Amino acid sequence: MTSPPLGPSRPSPSGRYHVAVVGAGPAGLAVAATAAAAGCRVALLDAAPAVGGQYWRGRDPGVRLSGVDVMTGSAVWFVSPGFVLHRRGSDPVAAERLVFATGAYDRTLPFPGWDLPGVVTPGAAQAMLKGCGVPIGDRVVVAGAGPFLLPVAAGLLEAGVRVVGVYEAGDPTRYARAPAAVAGARGKAREAMSYLATLARHRVPYRTRHAVLAARGVAAVSAVEVGQLDRSGALVPGSVRPVECDAVAVGYGFTPQLELPLALGCATRLDTDGSLVLAVDFAGQTTVPGVYAAGEVTGVGGAALAEVEGRLVGAGVAVATGHRSPLSEMELTRLLRRRSALRRFAALMHRVHAPPAGWPEWLTENTIVCRCEDVPVHRIRAAVTGLGATDGRAVKALCRPGMGWCQGRICGYPVAELTARWRGRPLTAADLAVFAHRPIAQPVRLGDL
Amino acid sequence: MSRPDVVIVGAGMVGAACAYYAARNGLRVTVLDRASVAGGTTGAGEGNVLVSDRQPGPEMDLTLCSLRLWREIGDELGRGPIELEPKGGLVVASTPESLSALRELAARQRRAGVEAVEVAAGDLSRYEPHLAPGLAGGVHYPQDMQVQPMLAAARLLAASGATVHCGVEVRGIERDAAGGVAAVVTGAGDRIGTRTVVNAAGVWGGQVAALAGAHLPVAPRRGFILVTEPLSSASAAARGVVGPIRHKVYSADYVSTVVSDDAALQTSTVVESTRAGTVLIGSSRERVGFDRSYPLPVLRRLATQAVALFPFLAEVSVLRTYLGFRPYLPDHLPAIGPDPKVPGLYHACGHEGAGIGLAPATGALIAAQLTGGEPPVDPYPFRPERFG
Amino acid sequence: MSASGHLIFDGRRVPVKPGQTVAAALWAAGIRSWRTTRETGAPRGVFCGIGVCFDCLVTIDGTPNQRACLAPASPGMVVTTQLGTGR
Fold it and tell me: How far is CA B251 from CA B55, B107, B131, in A?
């Protein structure tokens, strides 16, 4: 991405930026660079010590940020209408427009033993390896659903780790049934093929329609139980077998980080993958005027889509703040086409790698669902079937899942899903919103509030 | 479903208590709520069962009656399952002036039958080891209790045996030729025939009254609560190990903000540990309609005041905040009893911030009125017709 | 970027490499858990690895509830297993 050289960005005399971008991953970087190229005064905030987000993870994203005030180490814990972003340990940032590009994190499903040390998310495995050079184990199982499992496994292999198996709950052969959608994202298919080749070279078993059903161990995980799934996502009887390992990376796709836009009242919708995402219009504007979103928060679709959305939103906010669009007519058309194609592919990906329908059957009554508050399955069941809880809010109030340190980031999806199932109805956006609503977006000391 | 004797609108704490006592008096009860059990103000409070913040008078009578009934409920359902804790309250004064006002209130409360023990400044730390130094003194109210209001409402509803339909909105209340209640009509268009409706819709009580052509001026009075990281555990509490704050602790100016008629923001310091290990920090009152935004200045003021009272909290993290709308009536008294214009319509709402504490007496009073029994307190001060 | 050296974990010397988080330094030394839950006392360590789940809370230089997966490791740091609430 290129941008003309500009002087350092300065807030307007009132101290307000034209636009503040929260999140410096592929989407946020593209928004900031594009808006700055149009002459906007841009602030780019990220909680991490460097830009790049989970995707670039400290590597150089190669994005020119001249004219952007980069504020790394800025954990935003509160947003006020108007708009003001409150950061831990430094002054608030005010802007005329906000763009949320806060990304996503691994979505996890509970299973017996998932709280044993050594059971981690694929994102954790990647962060430890790529960020710190530490592999999560010597004999590792990679499992869950989604294309991200492949680079995680390949990365571990390249670091000399023995990957004892990759278990994908979805059925990737279904990609072949939607050639048009795949053709729109050829790069992704090529990437997947190269990872599969790495797996094959190391003779790593890659099993589709398989899932980790339980983890065993005393002080840490020492084995997992793996089973085969049928077309409906239910366990095939008699297919369960143990696989020895000293670490497991398991996750079922990603789910967006939404607390800041939700605090401003932005509307949400249930995406095809069952995640709560922001409702945005063609220009990436949320239902709150002046508040935009780009990347995974509008629907999980990967880094390429995030960057395309980021460039479009960056151009859009530039125009909205009285600047000329930095995109030519031709670039705009190309980006819009690319966005459609990548979104089509993302929807296909969501269908292929959907969380397996049978996962609640793997739970035992004592399986912990809320890791923070130690809430087991039987207490959630008692709230729904014994105390009359009909929605996530009531379950949360009656037995505390989602009340702890992580504020429902991890258990929100499974608790909402279990509640809906046990009430005999489908999961709704409202169920998930209960666990995603966090007006205080990050823990803050009372003395610092 | 079989025709209920009474339909209660609202599955909050008050509706649950009405259902519990009505069912115990032999009535067939159906409870309807458009959301879930304890989905409104019940789920947005601290679970106060307080005598300390009451002025002598009608509400004190209702409070003392409720306190007795809460103990009975604790015996019946078990204290553990509803987290009913007779922890006592400690009201502290920071200046000699506020201390003398507090003492004067305590003296009047004692004459009304309240246990109120003066605590000298030097003795405060025996009650609360982490209190800031330099306070003028306080009063200990051993009768004050705390309950987990969502659990209490859910368990009381379950114990009542009432038929409960959540996610069912009441769209209309039909009346017969004589003007009396004939049926309740739901959002799905179902018609539930009944001669009696109890309006336990809390802060939305005015809207439910209007469905029957009645008038009740319930207005929302917004409040915020901050919740800290866990500082103790429920498993330790079960072994008798309490959190860092032993009582419900609040500043003496709390009582004056409770009884104030001012619509503007008022805050006072209220701090307590919960069984789950968190510390709850309140409280604020303002009449701003059903505004669900979280103004940072209000949250800051709550934090600052709490740290002033308990300096150790400065290092403790806030994990979340929530808001609720107290059902406010202009004279700060709830409306309990028959509607003056609509035969068969009873009101049980408008308890402002005291609905949890006052719920059992409210339920018992409504049940007595429905069945012609002996009312547990004089119902006259709470008659809904005072607004008519 | 922090320098090489050792941090002290529960009295034990743990090597620290530049750019590592506390979690990574502990993990590289074979340490898988450094916290127990407050209700059941179950051991916990890294889970999400990116600061979202708060499962890796640990006491660093006397301050409890620090996310080990975010906190940069530095030589001389004193890290202690956090029991329950850490308070």
Answer: 16, 17, 12
